[in-house]
């Protein structure tokens, strides 16, 4: 049956409309969870608020377990799911740059747009910064190209590269996530409470 | 009044959620595994099998060949000996036992052409059709009746009875024309006009009157 659009359950023409609807829902949830506050987001790095870590980890886990159950029950074909291609160098360098930007600015790209929507001035500055970054990258693309396309690994998943059973992987991943949740709670309790 | 029991339970809500996640993830590990079959599922195969579109009639195929429709690949799945004796024009020979060979896959697994499978009857072609469908190949069809029906309808069409409908006669004439295309000669086609024997023009006889000899005159 699934994925719905490639299998023609939903016509292909609807994909943009569905994307907009999902985007609106995503933005709403981000804002409702308080992710349009840079102080809350930066709390992960300073150890006084781990909501970001918990929300995204939980979302990944729920999606992962849900997809595997749907695949097991035959509602979804995991083989026809989109797997994002891996460019190792691009991922490492880009991830480091984004991490620095995350600590310094207190937003990730998605939450910054969310914060712009509710009129945060720091988010506006952040988005202008993103645009400048995009401009520089596009203009100097020839320079960045070897890095951008370097160490192409194909559309691989962690299961492919480690070669372990995906069900065991998900189980271990769940345990790790819960241990991390517990640890993050302990760290938060040690730290001084900050009101923001 | 606040339900105290509920409050007490809710203080453990994150623990409960964590336990639910662990149980669900553990369930994935413990579930009995089964191997999924590749290719299309049985329901889809059945619906393909009962669809009338899986067959192409001999008339439709003859029409396509006569009009030189470039979108068809004809695949003869009989043995090579039979193929060399007779086959359809421009057919490719892939015997049933070689169907899954690497060389035959490019002909079968593609999206641009309509593949028409045929054998003497449609029995072997049907088997090949099922295999191809199971592998998820598209646009595969079977010649209904195979070469036997091809012979009785296209190559050697039966002349309809005098009191049959007009459609039968038009069908017959189309089939006859098709068979002429495939090189069948009909008596009326090869009939040689009886040689016209030219009558010999009667000779005109010109009678030349001889000049009457002048009677010898006496002279010297």
Explain what this protein looks like in three dimensions.
The complex is a heterodimer of chains A (196) and B (220). By secondary structure, chain A is mainly α. Chain A has a domain of 70 residues. Chain A is 68% helix and 3% strand. Chain A has nine helices and two strands, in the order H-H-H-E-H-H-H-H-E-H-H. A two-stranded antiparallel sheet of chain A has the order 1-2. In chain A, helix 2 packs across helix 4. The longest helix of chain A is centred in the last third of the chain and has 25 residues. The radius of gyration of chain A is 19 Å and the shape is globular. With 220 residues, chain B is α/β, with parallel strands linked by helices. Chain B has a domain of 112 residues: Rhodanese-like domain (Oxidized Rhodanese, domain 1), CATH 3.40.250. A five-stranded parallel beta sheet of chain B has the order 1-5-4-2-3. The model of chain B has no long low-confidence stretch (mean pLDDT 84).
Question: Features of this protein?
Answer:
A: 196 residues; mainly alpha; two-stranded antiparallel ribbon; 68% helix; B: 220 residues; five-stranded parallel beta sheet; 5 strands
């Amino acid at each position: 049956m699934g994925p719905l659009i490639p299998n023609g359950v939903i016509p292909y023409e609807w994909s943009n409309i569905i994307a907009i609807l999902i985007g609106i829902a995503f933005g709403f949830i981000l804002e409702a969870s308080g992710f349009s506050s840079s102080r809350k987001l930066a709390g992960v790095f300073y150890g006084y608020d781990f909501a970001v870590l918990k929300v995204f980890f939980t979302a990944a886990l729920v999606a992962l377990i849900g997809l595997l159950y749907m695949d097991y029950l035959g509602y979804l074909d995991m083989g026809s799911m989109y797997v994002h291609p891996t460019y190792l160098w691009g991922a490492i360098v880009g991830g480091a740059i984004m991490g620095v930007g995350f600590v310094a600015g207190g937003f990730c790209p998605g939450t910054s747009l969310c914060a712009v929507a509710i009129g945060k001035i720091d988010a506006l500055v952040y988005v202008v910064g993103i645009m400048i970054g995009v401009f520089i990258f596009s203009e100097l693309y020839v320079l960045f190209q070897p890095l951008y396309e370097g160490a192409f690994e194909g559309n691989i998943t962690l299961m492919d590269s480690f070669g372990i059973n995906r069900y065991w992987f998900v189980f271990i991943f769940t345990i790790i996530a819960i241990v991390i949740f517990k640890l993050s709670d302990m760290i938060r309790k040690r730290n001084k409470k900050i009101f923001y | 009044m606040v339900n105290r029991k509920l409050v007490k339970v809710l203080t453990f809500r994150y623990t409960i959620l964590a336990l639910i996640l662990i149980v669900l993830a553990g369930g994935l590990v413990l579930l009995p595994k089964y191997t999924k079959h590749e290719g299309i599922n049985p329901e889809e195969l059945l619906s393909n099998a009962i669809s009338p579109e899986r067959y192409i009639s001999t008339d439709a195929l003859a029409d396509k060949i006569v009009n030189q429709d470039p979108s068809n690949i004809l695949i003869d799945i009989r043995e090579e000996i039979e193929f060399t004796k007779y086959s359809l024009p421009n057919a490719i020979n892939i015997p049933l036992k070689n169907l899954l060979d690497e060389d035959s896959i490019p002909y079968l697994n593609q999206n641009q052409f309509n593949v028409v499978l045929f054998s003497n009857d449609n029995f072997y072609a049907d088997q090949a059709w099922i295999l191809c469908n199971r592998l998820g190949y598209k646009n595969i069809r079977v010649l209904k009746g195979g070469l036997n029906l091809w012979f009785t309808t296209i190559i050697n069409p039966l002349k309809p009875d005098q009191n049959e409908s007009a459609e039968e006669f038009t069908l017959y004439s189309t089939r006859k024309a098709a068979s002429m295309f495939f090189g069948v000669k009909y008596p009326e086609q090869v009939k040689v006009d009886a040689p016209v024997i030219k009558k010999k023009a009667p000779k005109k006889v010109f009678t030349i009157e001889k000049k009457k000899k002048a009677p010898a005159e006496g002279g010297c």
